[in-house]
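Anyone else keep sequences and structure tokens together like this?

Example one:
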Amino acid sequence: MTQTGADRHRVVVIGSGFGGLFATQALRRADCDVTLISKTTSHLFQPLLYQVATGILSMGEIAPATRDILKRQDNATVLLGEVTDIDVQARTVTSQAAPGPLVTPYDSLIVAAGAGQSYFGNDHFAEFAPGMKSIDDALELRGRIFGSFELAERATDPEEVRRFLTFVVVGAGPTGVEMAGQIAELCNRALKRDFRHVDTTSARIVLLDAAPAVLAPFGPKLSADAARILAGVGVEVLLGAKVVGLDAEGVTYEDADGQQTFIPAACKVWAAGVAASPLGALLAQRSGAQIDRAGRVEVEKDLTLPGHPDVFVVGDMIALDNLPGVAQVAIQGGRHAAATIRARLDGRPEPGPFEYHDKGSMATITRFSAVASVGRVKTAGFMAWVLWLVVHLMYIVGFKKRLTTLLHWTVSFVGRTRSERTTSAQQVVARNRLRNDPDGTPLWPGAVGERQSRQSGG
């Protein structure tokens, strides 16, 4: 089936993340029709996924419905579907969902499909250590984390109790540090009085990374501050440790001397690497563009695809000037692409090369403790934590979501409880069963994505 529109300029946006959503909103008053195609029905605030996984926030707080966000934007249409083909010659996008494929023509295309988790060629690790890139990841991890405490409570063998109370987080970047810190908060504070046969404060939380420092891009001072805060809440940090094995029983890592050590652990979290969407490789194949080792597309300075000025690539998918894969790059890139399209429609000079304005980096570790690097200001502790709260609250979409998020933060950080602890067996096992049935007919776009990620090695 082919979808056709009116005579107005047709813009297709792929992805409902920061880049895709902000690009769509920036075209609100443009003389064009915008079609946003996404494999999910929501806009995900990815930096707060770990709070869904550890019971602080519900998925609704960080993933509002895209249709609801854009319901007052008359020139925007939202379509659910996994993009499976882009024909840059015919200027069409093919997306897949029940009952079948849909072909959508475009005059301008913005590709903002983001990135997935990379297991560095060890895709079988995904079965035992979910990443932190989607709502599915967060809900699966919530089931695994809280389920580990439940299984420890009923275990009679001391070795099994220790295995259930050992949590290994792979990756000492912001996501890994934040996850390790919140698991420590669960063990030392939120769940301290909930169990009768196990002492949650005796849990072992291990943060592993092959890198030589925690939060290395933040600089030596903040890296040392973060390591100190982690140690203060009982997180064991192992650096220069490369994961060489991971299964249901635990994790095996190799140190700089080549010595291998096995850590028995029931719950593992993978936060170690990213790989661009498989659409990057597809664009390269269709257009002759180059991609880097992470699958990111090498774009022109104005974010267009080489030889195809009507195609823009933004966010985590681009390889340009060593730009980091952070939300601000996606937001600013989406707005830049939209500004270029508006200028073309209005007959005005185009904005020219994309200029990224670094607004800083920050990571929260525990309640009242964070690290922040904003311009020349590098701080750690309570003030950094307050700054983190304010900035993240600003970027949550919608007043109601901000209000409920603030309420949940108050309950979790001032009190001891976690209001979102509900788990189900489906959260833990459903995706692995999808992965184990790669030939099944997908009825939902996410099922297509599971297979694509597995086959693409990312």
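And example two:
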Amino acid sequence: MASTETVLQPPDQNLPGRIPAVAPVWNTVLLLAILLAVTLLQTVAQTMPGVAGRAAHLSSRVPTYIFTMCYEFFLLGLVWLGLWLRRVRLRDIIGGRWARWKDFWTDVGVAFIFWLVILGVLTALSYALHFNGAEAASFLMPQTVPEMILWVVLAVSAGFCEELVFRGYLQRQFLALTQNVVAAVILQGLVFGVAHGYQGLRAIPVISVYGMMFGALAAMRKSLRPGMMQHATQDGVSGIAYHFASRLHHLPLIRF
């Protein structure tokens, strides 16, 4: 494993001490506009008569999974463009590389502990707001073995892309805008929640808190790696659990 690299050294600028943006403003505005537009389209589609019912009885979810992965990597490509224009590498946003295997296993341990915290907080919020993520996203859950396999691939891509887009890129851009870590964590979490608005209005506050927790983890660890591990694993396990639990008529783990 290569040595850990210094993360995001600020370029020379007129205001010493200010945290710089990692991409042009227009790039961030475009990304936010696309996220909002897609969310609105998904939300409107879900409210149309018969659409939700047809989605729940799709003959195959494979096209949906493939389209979702393409969309996530499209967003990642837009982020990469913004970073490239400012000569910032994806590696710098992620937080360098592992210097030793011990660092890798430390991140695995952090991801596992974080998962336990996530489950506790989100379970409490879900009960308080009468929101069940499994029911809200049930139309996306895999029903066959090929779908389950592709779901795992989708979970890995979501863990990588979404953490980079929201906790890496957007959180850093909001940090440059506000010069306040807490504000940056909250803002990216709100965007993350709104981006999942197709699961219903009750989903937004729950998923926003979920995103803020990931943002806080990234800020404390100065790395996206533990969040990527947890995000991908939770999504993957939720889909697999749903596949088997649906046969027993039980609800699976919450999936976001």
